[in-house]
Each structure stands twice: as C-alpha cells, then as structure tokens.
Amino acid sequence: MNPLSQERLRKRDRFLDQAVREMWKYDERLQGIDVEVRFDRGVAHLTGEVESAAQLATARALVGRLDGVLAVWDRVRVAGRDPVVLDLGCGAQKQYPGNFGVDLYPTPKVDVLADVSRALPFADGSVDRVFLVHILEHLIDFLPLVDEVHRILRPDGVAFVLSPWWQYVNAVADPTHVRMLDVQTIKGICRRPGSKRPWYPLHASCDGASIFAELQPLSDEAEFPDETELARFFD
Asked: Does the predicted model carry a pTM greater than 0.90?
C-alpha cells in the first residue's frame, strides 16, 4: 500500500464534501441535526451543536460509512454543554481550540502537566473525547495509557488514535518511535485477553502512511460487536 498523494486527498475531500451535503439534504435521519462537516485529507471534522448524544452518534456513524473517510473527529456541544476534550501529549499543537492540552513538558498549548505513561490526573468518567495523536508509537508499553483513557472517558466518549503505519518509512525514520502499529493492532487493543476494559471500534483505517481509529469504551465484553461489524475494518 502506497501513501495517498496530496492531490488525490484534496480531490477526495471535495467529493466527500459534496456527498455529505447531499446526505444531509436527503437522509431523514439527519434532519434537524445542526452539525458542520469539514474534510481535511480524508478526516471528517464535525463541529456545531446537537440536542442529544444520540444525534451526534447518528451523524458520526453515517459520515463514517462514506467510502474514503479515514476518520471522524468531533468537537460538538451536546444539550448546551461544551465537551471536555483532552489532547494527550499535545506538545505545541492542539487538534481543536478549547481542548485541554496535556503534556510532560510546558508549552503555550499545555494546560495540564502530566506524564501520560503514568496514571492520568482525571476522575473516572469525566471526559468526553481524548486525542491520542502521534503518541502511542513513543511508548514502550502503551496499554496502561489505553486503559487510563478507558477509565476517564464517559460511556459515550470516544478516543481518537493517529499513529504511523508500521510499513511507512516515517514509522522507522524517527528514532523516538519504539512501537509500530497496524490496523490489526487496533483490533487487539479492543479485545485484549485478560483485560477488563474492552473497546468498541467505531472506525479504523489506514491511508498507506498512518493508522486512524476511533474507539468507544465498553463496560461489558458482551457488548463487543460481532464478526460482521468487525469485518468493516479488520481481517
């Protein structure tokens, strides 16, 4: 698999933008859902405000089913409340203004100083969204962090993962990368033997350079999707 060219990604963004406009016009399930969708190199960015978490879940699910969508990221007000969104290991960049930046080292974007390889300084079920953008590959053992994110997310929360694909040159060109990921790694994270913190894979993909995933915490492994659902993303 070769990485998609920037020109192809731009053209596909234009196609997806038109597809979403038509979907919002004709799909009755989306009527009354006031969400703006913007595409950036295959990633759908959802912003705006909805009346309920169910509306946001509907919008996310329908956008994610479009061919060519690599990820569905959102920062949407629900029932008049701003979401609590963390950017873990943000460094000097947040994914959305208003997110809480968390990092071991201070920068103008960091709001909370914390070592993400240790227990996170947030209460159980207190966070709506967590960004894990270019962070897992830097940790020798990232599973404790994944478990911590599961702990702090609300039941309808979502973790957004972005990491270099193991076969792409940038995955090994950076000497600080100590772990390599594949889409199948995401499957392993979701249902790890012996783990009491399973995940529901809302979306998972690879563009030939990066791995994308959106994961929702499950309280019971019995809620794990069946093989038909998993076949959308995994072998």
From this structure: yes
